[in-house]
Amino acid sequence: MSYADSVIDRYEATVDDEYQRMLLHQSSTVAFTALMWLSYILAVALIWALPGPNMEIAAMVMFVLPLLGLIVGQWWLRRRVPLPRVNKISIGEIIALVLILALFIGGMARSRMMVGSELAGYLTGSVVGVGMGLALVLVIFKIIYPMIRQRDQRRLDRELGED
Question: What pTM value is reported for the model?
Answer without folding.
Answer: 0.76
